[in-house]
Write the C-alpha cells for this entry.
Amino acid sequence: MQRNTGKRKVTLITGALVVASVAATGLIGATAYAASSSSTTTTASESTSSSDTSTSTSDASSPTISSGSSDSSSSQATSGGS
Amino acid sequence: MPLVETLPVRPDTAQWPVWGTVARLVVTDPAVLDEAAGLLRDELAAVEQACSRFRPTSEIRDVCRAGGRPVVVSSLLAELVGAALTAARDTDGAVDPTVGGALCALGYDRDFAELAGRVAGPGVRVFPKPDWRAVRLDGRELTVPQGMLLDLGATAKAVAADRAAARIADSLGTGVLVALGGDIATAGPGPDGGWQVLVQDRPGDPSCTIRLPAGSALATSSTAGRTWGRPGELLHHIVDPATGRPAPTVWQTVSVAAFSCLRANTLSTAAIVRGHGAPRLLAGVPSRLVSPSMRILRTGGWPE
C-alpha cells in the first residue's frame, strides 16, 4: 500500500517536473523568437541607412540650417574630419 | 590626413596650425581680429596644458600618475572632464574618455603630426578596459583608477571652441566663429544670413555649403581624417570603447549641427561608433552622413 502511494508520488513529481520543463522550454523559445524578431526588424531598419535619403523633420532642440551659396569659396570656414 | 583648409584668409580671418589641425577665427568686426586671436590662443594653450595626453607636464598626466588617489584639479580641467563624462553618459558610453590606453596600444601615443610616416610596431601593452563609470569627479576632486589613461580629444576640442567663441564675443562685443578642424562654434551676432560653412571631409569628397544661424555649432567626425598604419592594417582614431579597436567604418564622415559644439561633437563621434545605429541616434537632429562609397544620408532637415 505504502509502496503504491510512494510510486504515485514519484509519478506526480516526475509529471510536474516534465510540465515545468516543457513550460520553461516554451518560454525560452518565445523569448529567443522575440529577440530574433527584434534583431531582424533592427537589421531591416538599418539597411535603409546605405541609401541616399533624407528626412525633413528637425526637433526643437536643434538649430535650423539652410543651404549656403553655391560659391563655396565665400564660406567662412570648413568643417571636415580632423 | 587631418583637415586641409583651402578657403581664403580675408581681413576678418586669422588661421594657424594647432593640435595637428587648423585653428580658424572669423569675426564680424575686423578691427578686433588681433585681440580675438590672442584670446583664442590663450584659450587653446590653457586647454592643452590642462588635458593634453601628449604633454608630459599637463595636469591630466599628473592625475593619471597619481596611482588612483583623488587629485584636486583646476576648474578648467574639471570642466573638461565633466564634459567628457556627460558625453559618455548621454551616449551610453559610445563616447568614452577612458579609451586613452586603447589608443596608446594602437600606436597613437604621441602628437598626430609625429605619427605621419611612422609604422607602429607590434607589441603587447596592457591597459584597463575602458569604462567611464570608473572615473570619479566630485567638484574639482578627480579620481582616475590606477593604470587608466584619459583621452579627452573627442570633447575637449569642442569645449575649447565653445569657450573661446563665448569669451571673444563677451569680451570684444563681436560676432565670432571659431573653427578647430571639424569643430565649429559661433557666438554673438552673425553675418547677414548666418555663418556660411563648407562641409567636406577630404579634397575631392562630396561637399555642400550650409548656413548656420548665429549661436549654433557644427562638428564633423571622420574615420579618414587621422589614420596611421601598422603592419597589415590601417587604423583611425575613433575607438569603439566596447572593443578597444577603431570603430568599423560604416560611415566615413558624420556632420552634426547643434546649439553647442560639445553636443554636436558628441553626436557625430557617437554616430561613427554606433555605425548602423547612427540614423536612429540622429533622428530629428540636422546631420549629414557619408558612407565609404560616398552615398549621403541627411537627417533632421539638413538641406539638399
